[in-house]
Amino acid sequence: LPLNLGNKEITWMMLEAGAETDVVNSVGRTAAQMAAFVGKHDCVTVINNFFPRERLDYYTKPQGLDKEPKLPVKLAGPLHKIITTTNMHPVKIVLLVKENPLLAEVEALQKCYKVLDLICEKCMKQRDMNEVLAMKMHYISCIFQKCITFLKEREDKLDGLIKSLLKGREKDGFPIYQEKLIRESIRKFPYCEATLLQQLVRSIAPVEL
């Protein structure tokens, strides 16, 4: 990857053309690790957030004994847009759901979060484990599940979720609901042995709400 240019657009184009992210150089470093080493953090973000569309399209075709695909074709585009976003703020993800009528329905979100859970599992169990992508898929899945709860139970639906996420605590304006949602998603990550999970827990645990 063109680390010397530090050009995230070129990095993205090369990834879309099939560049492998897990190939290592002569000193055993991946492109993302080398980009981080030379301070090209935009490139690191692009590499870590890249997810080929064909890997998602796999779920739009019936597999094995399945009669129906796990993901309807019409949901693949909207879901891929969210998967590849680099802005992981929960409000941003809920807004991306809200702006697409195909996604902002209970049944659609149920199908999507189940596919995200399958991708998360695959990321953790493949030979070249990708903890970053696994955690991201799990995190988005948790937000989708929270969207489902609000769509089912609240009259103000996703607007109510956005308000809850943005509302600050009275005494200091701290967004307590948002913090609890993020912590809950970390706590529910099913792969306790993951290094990334342990790092997150170590950094968050000392911070009291």
TrEMBL record:
Query: What's the domain of life for this entry?
Result: Eukaryota
Which InterPro entries does the UniProt record give? Answer: Ankyrin-MYND_dom_contain_2, Ankyrin_rpt-contain_sf
Concerning SUPFAM superfamilies, the annotation shows:
Ankyrin repeat (SSF48403)
Coiled-coil residues are none
Q: Gene3D superfamilies attached here?
A: Ankyrin repeat-containing domain (1.25.40.20)
Q: What is this protein called?
A: ANKY2 protein
Q: What is the species of this protein? A: Eudromia elegans
